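Risk register update: the risk of archive-format incompatibility is retired. Evidence:
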Amino acid sequence: MTNRDPEPSSRKAIAKRALEDADHIKIKKSRTTKAKRKETDQNFDHWPQYFHSLFKVYKALNTVLAFVTSRKQLATTFPSIRSSVENITKQPLDMSQVAELKALLPEIITFAYVPRNQIQVNVSAKFSKDEPDFSAFAKHSSKEPEHVLLLEFAESWKGASGGTKASHNEYLVPATRTPAATKKLVEKRNDRFIKAVNELLAATSSSDDPVFLLKAAARDYIPVDPEHIKNNPSVDETAHMPVPSSEDRAPVYDILAELQEQHWYKDQIVERRTVEPREGQTGCLEPLLSSSIQQALQSSRNIETLYSHQATAINALNSGKDVIVSTSTASGKSVIYQVPLLRLLENDPHTTAIFVYPTKALAQDQKSALENLLRACPGLEHIQVSTYDGDTPVEQRAGIRASASVIFTNFDMIHAAILPHEELWRRQAFLKNLRLFVADELHYYSGTFGSHVAQIMRRLRRVCVAVGSTYVSQVQQSYTSVIVIFFTHLPRLHTDHHARFVSCSATIANPLAHMVNIFGLDSSQIQVVTEDGAPTGMKEYLLWRSPYVDEHEPALGRQSSIAEATALMRFLMKRGIRVILFCKIRKVCELVMKTLRNELSSEGRYDILERVQAYRGGQSFWYRILHLVVLIRRSDLGYSAEERRRIEHDAFTGHLLGIIATNALELGVDIGTLDAVLMLGFPVTLASFRQQAGRAGRRKRDSLAVFIAEGLPIDQYYLNNPHELFDKDTDDLLIDLDNEIILEAHIQCAAHEMPICFEDEKYFGPLLKEICKFKLHRDEDGWYHPDSKCLPSPSKLISIRGTQEDKYVLVDVTKSDTSAKILEEIEISRAVFEVYEGGIFIHQGRPFIVQEIHHDTMLVKLVQADVNWITKQRDFTDVNALQTYRTRAIKATPHRAYYGRVEIFCQVFGFYKMRHNVILDVVDVESSPWIHETVGMWIDVPDLVLQLLRDKCIKPAAAIHSAEHAFLNQFPLASDIRTECKAEEKEYLKKESRRKRPARLIMYDPVGHGSGVAAKAFEHASDTLNKALVAVESCRCERGCVKCILSASCKEGNIVSSKPGALAILKAILNIEINPDSIPFETDERALHGHDSIISVSPVHTRTPQSVPIGNASST
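Archived output:
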């Protein structure tokens, strides 16, 4: 071969290099003026003739696609538009020509096989007027092909909704494009082609032929039908290299180098940090472990020596000190409580223990580990370990109480099933022999839930003293937090006069204070262990920003964060990297899994799919590959116990190559050999970010953690301030021990378990006496019993996680009503937004269409449908102050804070059919509103500041929204309170909304929680407002950040916001003079659209204050 005819591999390399150089030129800033640059771009007389011919094809294709996409009913598949293009060019249109165009404009043109359902809009057997027309390429056969060849051009036109630039949360509407708009779009795309060719020619050396280079590069863009690959395994064998085992995979450093060489890599990595490996440090126990325990540790865990933090903690516990251990993930903290358990069982085989975990998945993981350890320990093989949770059949519970030595449970069961029936446990001597109590993941217990847990622990300690187990030592672990309580009998009180606790934590800012708050311990008796002796492998951290679809056309927006996440996940899995992808909510998990399955099947990666557990019977093809990626949700709701155990087993054994999860698996579950963690969106808190990142690298190997930012302001803030992700301290965990609502509830429970006396103040604090006098019943001997309104079972009246809502049952009636199968149950508050007739409900990655809803029986009938679109509800939520119970003056102002009855009004009035953020159809539905009442606090905004905001073109809704966030950012219990977040689609629409909202800041208790947090916010309104003002005024950011007005919990993504507006409102409420010149005019083009949705407030009527006692708030 001559130099003009190099080897095939060389041809590809040269072509790739030329196109990469062209891409470099494309993004390089030009020094020429805009007019000069356009003149240069339009000059294409110097082109080789081939590019003129290709331009003719491009212009014809561009025109046809622009016309087709202007009418939403038409599908843009290659066969359906081919003849139209050929009629214009008067020559055949070959796939290779389209591939050449794709090579020139890879970000603009989509040319690939996709599942047929990906372009369907409706699922009826006959086409409707809204359904894509497949007739142009339909085959006359009984079975249509599973995949179709899709041909699309990216576009930024937004139809009748107006605007030229779509934000992350905006949607492209389906209205018909005008001829003028179509012409403009065609011209813009033609200019883009000219620019791309000029860039290629500029990047091509004089010794190379640009036409040859383009043709060589285009070979990689010729799509291959996945069915052809499936039926002909020899096709493109180099693209389907076997997935290496986890042991044989390349180092993460090398894989990242390969990643940056991929054609789709566009400098998405905006920050990279490397944590170097660390050698382990060992320690010694005094006294030494018995030979049996040493043998068990060695044979079941391969542990021959203990790390220094393990030895220090166990030695301190053995010497009578309380201990808290704060070390990293996967540092072996479970050994800290498992070794003492084995010692206790060796000394006394009647010893019993309770292990408490926040999730059932974690409990199953740790139960299996303990059983393996016991089986390996000579003399302890017979020890019975049992699960005692909501899944345990009632008929088995008595046997567990009688024969189990260790039970795995949760605080819900302790509160509702163990403490109320302590006589059953006492009768079997389980509590009398209790020596060890384990409560895992201590950081999980904070806020309202943690306040409940703190009172439950005090109730438990009180009962244990009464039954004879008075010596308590406890190991708590947070972020694998563990609590271990050792009980001894009364005669030992002369040697140890306080309860011993050992706490293990990796993420909480002040573990000592949190341990004291949860268990009421004396901090002087606690030894803190923070030196981590466990070894770690090298870890790479990446911050990932989605690239623009086209650098020259920012109006096209950025690539979807979901598409970026699935592309990265596929890349890593193909190289033997075992990946977990964390999503913030269940629905995103389902969408990610569905996208991943479609992409893998389109690539023909059946070598990966063959590792999937088979699903047969009536399931679709897509469901049969479910085993590749298992969805593990934060809540276990809806899954049967057997199904959940199977999923957990697959995850723990490392059988899966990839896992998609919400934050359930950020806890200390050992989910096998994970090499990489992907986080799709900022996971609400810094603690969660670090916990999720710690899931990978649990086997001392190198690992990877990637934060894939969404388009939301909170994510962009951390992209621009990466040091805060790694260096900033996490917030303190808060426990409200003085919350009278929670405290009274648990004192009623404690009085039912055993009569209360004033000496119990050592458990429940100084408020006990007042609560006893006014809320409990006193007998003639001076003992206090529960109020009669709480009988017969006070614990049943209290849900420590909030009131349990009624649930709708979702059933699959795809085959028939008689063979219906229950899929899951969802609460009313979720069902309102996720279940409506004609909508899509996704269960474990499978799409179902809602066929019927029976509100009287709370039954929802679903039919499985093989579609690739989703539905998004069209809804609104109003939070209305109905009745004022109390008022409180805001210090040094004429304004007041209000507390009272609040109504939550939710209405779904329709839905969008959507694909890739594009609206395919708009559907109206009739549904009943969901109305619920709770309590909340509010502050009215003065009219004068509203007018000032309008004069500055600042939307009052944005200012109020940001002021609410500023308030909550300074309120310690903000995670347990809600506010009325402002929606972008309402505030920024051209069409004015008829819904007007009163100008007030409003915060309320979540429906059904009854936590009293809103009352706390009301009581501390003045101080919180002043802190918010200082935070906003002193913050150096320009448009708002997490330190002032952005909230990671905002359900509308902080899109509607205004920092200057928030500052003005806070000053007005606090009666501080506002200099109008200090408030800048709004300049954000998006915020200038839409209409004002805020009106002046009207007084909320009151009721007599004495009928609603609430804390110590003074009323006027």
